[in-house]
Amino acid sequence: MPHEHFPVLWVGRVAVISLPAEIDMINADLIRDDLLSVLNRGPATLIVDMSGTTFCNSAGVNALLRAHRRATASESHMWLVVTAPAVRRVLSITGVDYLMEIYPSVTAALDATAGPVATRQR
Predict the structure, then answer these.
(1) CB–CB of 68/77 below 8 Å?
(2) Residues of the domain holding 90
(3) pLDDT tens digits for 40-95?
(4) For the chain, how many structural domains are there in total?
């Protein structure tokens, strides 16, 4: 069985992975590997919980984009939960917010897996 370094919670075919407070070149490869590992297990949706993340640089953005490509190729959804304004700004500047759904909470993202995307933020 795969072992991820960051907590993963499965709710049916939805996986929720919680990322650390800071995402940078020191841990971006590990994060990318964990995201890919979870995606390899075939979730319908991968929710990336960045609600505790206050810093994300280009290495972190690259890790998210690589995982998003895998999710798209495997016909999975990959959604983000982001609360920190600084992280939202990085995702906006890089255009990630147009590629991936961004939600204000894990609850909102989980609710969206059951119905229309009404709580999405830009």
Answers:
(1) no
(2) 8-113
(3) 999 999 999 999 999 999 999 999 999 999 999 999 999 999 999 999 999 999 99
(4) 1
Whether 122 is covered by a domain: the verdict is no
Is 39 part of a structural domain of the chain?
A: yes
Beta bridge partners of 79: 47
User: What CATH number should be reported for the domain holding residue 26?
Assistant: 3.30.750.24
pTM: 0.91
User: Is 121 contained in some domain?
Assistant: no
Answer whether residue 1 is part of any domain: no
What is the rounded distance in angstroms from the CA atom of residue 89 to the CA atom of residue 55?
Answer: 10
83 by DSSP, 3-state: which?
coil
Which amino acid type is present at position 63?
A
